[in-house]
Design a protein that fits this description.
With 164 residues, the protein is mainly beta. Helices cover 15% and strands 46% of the residues. The chain has 4 helices and 12 strands. Strands 1, 2, 3, 7, 8, 9, 10, 11 and 12 form a 9-stranded mixed sheet that branches. 26% of the residues are buried.
Amino acid sequence: MEVRGEKGMFENKKIEKNTLSVETKIHTLTWDEEIKDEQEYVEYYIDGKSLRKILTEVNGDNDIDFEESFIGVYPSDFFFPSKNFLGEAETALIEEDGSRIILICSICGVLVCSDVVFEIEEKEDYVIWKNFKKPIYDNKYMELNGGPFVFKRDEYESVLKGEL
């Protein structure tokens, strides 16, 4: 079943072919390039809503304002030919446990200063963002609410190519 609303199109259906057996909402990923302190970064939108806003809303009890404290990664780390968001991630954006950096410190913009990481699961027809967490110290993490977000792989790849 497809539903078209003001925030885009999504499907509610079972995805058995790719081993997801629960009812799954297919999300729409879009982006915009923003500038903060003369530095460009990618702002991710899921179904028309900023990922930073989503994380702030669903993690409101931990006193972290994701909209204020974090920015997305730099465009060169998001778009193809970079493989940080699909395929084999580059070392600078990957944690020891295999999770990838999606948000970085908004004050200094330095990777691993303060960041938010997540996992990408790749399926034949879908890409899933899941298990968001914030490293706190000594390889310990604060697990965050949010996701999983499931995207159609062909649309996701178009986003990484800068086409959508």
